[in-house]
């Protein structure tokens, strides 16, 4: 039997309907019927019992289907793998995330992407707060969902995934914690925990040295990871920034003693995609699309 004949037989064995089989295979119904008759002549016995109302497999048809299915699936899988490899949709893609709540989006995108592209292995890794671009620079990561800004000459700045209102994380006993909102000018009256490691432009964007009127904003201890920042804040040694999603019920940090205060006049926190400019692949761009689709689904649910 030719491969096309096998395909026609197995599809009819599944559909048990000549019209649906023809439609599924983009053939005419007479072509399907002719192929089955030719197969039956070669085998010397009918594969289907059929009349005007019903189509059923004969015992020979059941046996042939059972024998053919494993081999046919192997052929399909081999062709699919070859196609995926040829299109660049096979192999490992290492994706970095910089916070647990943003990692949820990447995990969901990876799950959906894996179903459609089973030969792609999406490996998700945490990006240190203190080294937001090191993994990409060193070639240890291929793609990253991270906090902007990013002004690195060897990195491509991809689409913004989230633009979220900025909030001040403050110890629950601090006077600011009793207020519904503060302004950027109020930051002159609180010590800000800073971050050790990122480029100066990144630190100054998130922790400006002064308010819009020129009042200095005091800087406190420098931290290298999120958990240390929350510990410093909870112990009253300074304040820090977070998005409103980080403060929400789904992603609220479990550490007690933290309060989240809105800063309506502060610029939003932007989370976007980055990748090495000289390492853009079909798999990478396809997964970027998957993240964007998952983001739209998330925003729709919310």
TrEMBL record:
<keyword id="KW-0805">Transcription regulation</keyword>
<keyword id="KW-0804">Transcription</keyword>
<dbReference type="InterPro" id="IPR036390">
    <property type="entry name" value="WH_DNA-bd_sf"/>
</dbReference>
<dbReference type="GO" id="GO:0003700">
    <property type="term" value="F:DNA-binding transcription factor activity"/>
</dbReference>
<dbReference type="GO" id="GO:0003677">
    <property type="term" value="F:DNA binding"/>
</dbReference>
<protein>
    <submittedName>
        <fullName>LysR family transcriptional regulator</fullName>
    </submittedName>
</protein>
<dbReference type="GO" id="GO:0032993">
    <property type="term" value="C:protein-DNA complex"/>
</dbReference>
<dbReference type="Pfam" id="PF00126">
    <property type="entry name" value="HTH_1"/>
</dbReference>
<keyword id="KW-0238">DNA-binding</keyword>
<dbReference type="InterPro" id="IPR005119">
    <property type="entry name" value="LysR_subst-bd"/>
</dbReference>
<comment type="similarity">
    <text>Belongs to the LysR transcriptional regulatory family.</text>
</comment>
<dbReference type="InterPro" id="IPR036388">
    <property type="entry name" value="WH-like_DNA-bd_sf"/>
</dbReference>
<dbReference type="InterPro" id="IPR000847">
    <property type="entry name" value="LysR_HTH_N"/>
</dbReference>
<feature type="domain" description="HTH lysR-type">
    <location>
        <begin position="1"/>
        <end position="58"/>
    </location>
</feature>
<dbReference type="Pfam" id="PF03466">
    <property type="entry name" value="LysR_substrate"/>
</dbReference>
């Amino acid at each position: 039997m030719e491969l096309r004949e096998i395909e026609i037989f197995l599809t009819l064995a599944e559909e048990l309907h000549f019209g649906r089989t023809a439609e599924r295979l983009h053939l005419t119904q007479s072509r399907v019927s002719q192929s089955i008759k030719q197969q039956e002549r070669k085998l010397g016995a009918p594969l289907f019992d059929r009349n005007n109302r019903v189509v059923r497999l004969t015992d020979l048809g059941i046996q042939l289907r059972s024998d053919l299915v494993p081999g046919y699936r192997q052929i399909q899988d081999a062709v699919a793998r070859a196609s995926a490899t040829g299109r660049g949709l096979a192999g490992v893609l290492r994706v970095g995330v910089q916070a647990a709540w943003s990692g949820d989006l990447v995990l969901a995108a990876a799950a959906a992407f894996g179903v459609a592209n089973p030969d792609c292995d999406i490996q998700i890794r945490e990006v240190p707060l203190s080294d937001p671009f090191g993994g990409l620079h060193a070639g240890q990561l291929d793609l990253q969902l991270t906090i902007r800004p990013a002004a690195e000459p060897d990195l491509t700045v991809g689409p913004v995934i989230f633009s979220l209102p900025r909030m001040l994380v403050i110890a629950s006993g601090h006077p600011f914690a009793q207020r519904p909102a503060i302004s950027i000018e109020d930051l002159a009256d609180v010590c800000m925990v800073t971050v050790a490691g990122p480029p100066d432009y990144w630190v100054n964007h998130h922790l400006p040295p002064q308010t819009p009127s020129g009042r200095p904003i005091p800087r406190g201890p420098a931290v290298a990871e999120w958990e240390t920042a929350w510990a410093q804040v909870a112990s009253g040694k300074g304040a820090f920034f977070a998005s409103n999603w980080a403060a929400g019920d789904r992603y609220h940090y479990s550490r007690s003693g933290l309060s989240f205060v809105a800063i309506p006049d502060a610029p939003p926190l932007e989370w976007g995609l980055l990748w090495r400019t000289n390492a853009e692949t079909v798999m990478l761009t396809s997964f970027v699309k998957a993240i964007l689709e998952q983001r739209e689904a998330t925003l729709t649910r919310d």
